[in-house]
Amino acid sequence: MARLKNYKIATIGSHSALQILKGAQQEGFKSIAICIKGREKPYKLFNVADEIIVIEKYPDLINLQDTLIKKNAILVPHASLMEYIGFENIEKFKVPYYGNKKILRFESDRNIEREWLKAAGLKLPKIFKNPKDIDRSVIVKFHGAKGGKGYFLAKNEKDFKQKIKAHKEEEKYVIQEYIVGVPMFIHYFYSPLTDELEIMGFDKRYESNVDSLGRISARDQMALAKVEPSYVIVGNIPVVVRESFLPRIIDMGEKVIKQSRKITPGGLWGPFCLETIMTPDEEIFTFEISARIVAGTNPYIEGSPYTWLKYNEPMSTGRRIAREIKMAIKQNKLNKVLG
Ligand code: ATP
Asked: What are the pLDDT digits (tens) for 19-50?
């Protein structure tokens, strides 16, 4: 236990940091929140950080490396780290990093990510390379788009050409088949120590304005000029999936892990999420993978129904990460979970 005390768990104060820091403390680690000036309050208020390091801007994290190394910190990544630091910089990071850095480039490019998921045997929405080929409803996604802002739906080539005019500055986009169904975000955890895939929970996103359009009648929607759906995430809602879907869902996660080992040494480990749409025909279309903790696990700081079944104690994804690191330290296998 003495050796455990030497390590600290650090993360950027944003996204899912509350549960990562809380989980670290629950497992006996000291926790460090790295916050942009002015954003420290939640981490003080909820008392989850043993230490708060304030930086002026995200790139300053690069200069903080020696300090973190001296503190014996292990950095736990989440989407904000990816977004603000970029995977190329993260790949060069010297601070011990939880997860496999090599997988980041596979999830940061939509085309490469698609190849991975396809090779894993998952069902994916069709991609239209040429607008001429649009023969069904599509969703147009911009690469640089922040949280689904500006995405639009189109029903054919003419509609697409009309709507794309408003996005002249956007160069990179993907035209994807629009799947009519319900979104389901599946949270997994894979442990290379136990070689086991765990289901941590499910969520659906609360997106503005698409989740409130249904509150306005179609007639009023038509009357309101320029109401286009947008997919800007503002929160996450817990979901329990129909139990008969679980065998397929477990199978999907296992295939993704298996395939990840073929694309890069060590493959994917730790938390990850398949972002899916489930149709009335009970098909599951995966439109994205997040190869790290997702904010959809935030409703489950006390654990989800699924982690309760497995652990009989509150087990958030943040805590599960800390437990994994703890197990690795105890078994002298830290190199298996850091990458
Ligand atoms: P992320 O934060 O996951 O990177 P993003 O900005 O890349 O988000 P997506 O997750 O690709 O955006 O899509 C945003 C939303 O659009 C989804 O949550 C879902 O509601 C909807 N959506 C995405 N793809 C499809 C699809 N093929 N069919 C139907 N709805 C979709």
From this structure: 999 999 999 999 999 999 999 999 999 999 99
Give domain 127-177's CATH superfamily: ATP-grasp fold, A domain (3.30.1490.20)
Residue of 231, 236, 276 best suited for mutating to test ligand 1, as the one with most atoms within 8 Å of CB: 231
Around ligand 1, the residues with Cβ closer than 6 Å are 125, 139, 141, 145, 147-148, 176-179, 183, 205, 207, 231, 275, 277, 287-288
Domain ranges in the chain? 4-100, 127-177
Q: Which residue's CA is the closest to the ligand 1 atom numbered 24?
A: 287
pLDDT in tens, 124-154: 999 999 999 999 999 999 876 566 677 889 9
Task: Give the pTM.
Answer: 0.94
Label each residue of the chain as H, E or C.
Answer: CHHHHHCEEEEECCCCHHHHHHHHHHCCCEEEEEEECCCCHHHHHCCCCCEEEEECCCCHHHHCHHHHHHCCEEECCCHHHHHHHCHHHHHHCCCCEECCHHHHHHHCCHHHHHHHHHHCCCECCCECCCHHHCCCCEEEEECCCCCCCCCEEECCHHHHHHHHHHHCCCCCEEEEECCCCEEEEEEEEEECCCCEEEEEEEEEEEEEEHHHHHHCCHHHHHHCCCCCCCEEEEEEEEECCCHHHHHHHHHHHHHHHHHHHHHCCCCCCEEEEEEEEECCCCCEEEEEEECCCCHHHHHHCCCCHHHHHHHCCCCCHHHHHHHHHHHHHHCCCHHHHEC
Architecture field, domain 4-100: 3-Layer(aba) Sandwich (3.40)
